[in-house]
Amino acid sequence: MSLRLTNSEASGWRRCRRKWYLGTYRRLAPDKGPEFHRPLSIGSRFHEVLASYYQPGVYGEPEYAMQILEATTQTDLILHPTLEDEILKEDALVTAMVEGYFEWLAEEGADMDLNVIASESEMEQPLIDGATILSKLDVRVERLSDKKRGNLEHKSVGSLTEPVRKLQVDTQLLTEHLVEFLHLVDEGKVENRAEFVLYNMARKVKRTATAKPPFYARHEVRHNVDELRSHWRHYAQQAREIMRATELLDSGIEHHDVCYPNPTGDCHWECPFTGLCLTGMMDDGSDWEAAVAADYKQVDPLERYVSQGVDSKG
């Protein structure tokens, strides 16, 4: 087999084997239409606007980014007329977030010391025999004052302080740094590696009179080579475990013997399979496959990479 391991799959494997089994191995997702004015869709729309802003050639032009937001909203209204209320609510919130972000940039000069080298890009590098590591970088930047290179990672958040507590060991940031480091080792350009990540946060609020600032913040995260080496070891072991589990499932071993559940208080909002799992349906002898056939569809877990192309190595 050939495993193309992303941070999303590795995180899912660590979080809950059953969720990995259903979402990655079985490639299942709820069979429902698009949703708007939800945390995930709000974050995706905000991210898309900033991705359009931080591009060589148009960087520093807020008007262009706002045009992208307006065009996206108009397209959604045409494609999903029955969801007009939700689409307009989401548009109003994201518009307020983006407008406030550009005001914050102007007031704080947060980007004054940054030069955009490259916009959103994907990379794939060999990890171990039979597995590659696949990641996506938001924005590559260079700090003008010291010529250090780094990445800018956009996040819409509920709190500006809660995410910071674990950023140093955040596997998404470590994976981004690791895959870029491996790529530069292959190219013989390790001196160009990203030395920091700027975690670029925006709160999901409209900044009304009753809302309390601050609404935007950045936190710098740095990883040394020892941290990247340790993350490689962790990632490599997870790849071995996933490959072994896949082999067992492919051979006909029951999912109960390979992918046990790990229910927590977060399942109700973070997992799309609660109707199958938390109800006991997958464990009490019920015909849960009938529920899968009725309520779920097949998807490609790597669609967000495949649709944009991957800079593949090895």
How does this model look, in words?
The chain has 314 residues and is of the alpha/beta class. The protein folds into two domains: 3-32 and 113-312, no CATH class; 33-111. The protein is 44% helix and 19% strand. It has eleven helices and eleven strands. The strands form three sheets. A five-stranded mixed β-sheet has the order 3-6-7-8-9. Strands 1-5-4-11 form a four-stranded mixed β-sheet. The chain has a two-stranded antiparallel sheet with strand order 2-10. Helix 6 (171-187) links the parallel strand 7 (149-157) and strand 8 (196-203). Helix 3 crosses helix 5. The longest helix has 26 residues, at 225-250. It is globular, with a radius of gyration of 21 Å. The two termini are 15 Å apart.
Structural class: alpha/beta
Largest sheet: 5 strands, mixed
N- to C-terminal distance = 15 Å
Order of helices and strands: EHHEHHHEEEEEHEEHHHHEHE
Number of domains: 2
What key phrases describe this protein's structure?
single chain; 314 residues; alpha/beta; 2 domains; 4-stranded mixed β-sheet; 11 helices; 11 strands; disordered C terminus
What's the SSE blueprint?
Layout: E1 3-5, H1 7-15, H2 17-25, E2 28-30, H3 39-53, H4 62-79, H5 84-108, E3 114-118, E4 121-128, E5 131-137, E6 139-143, E7 149-157, H6 171-187, E8 196-203, E9 216-221, H7 225-250, H8 267-270, H9 274-277, H10 288-295, E10 296-298, H11 303-306, E11 311-312
Parallel strand pairs: 1-5, 4-11, 7-8
Antiparallel strand pairs: 2-10, 3-6, 4-5, 6-7, 8-9
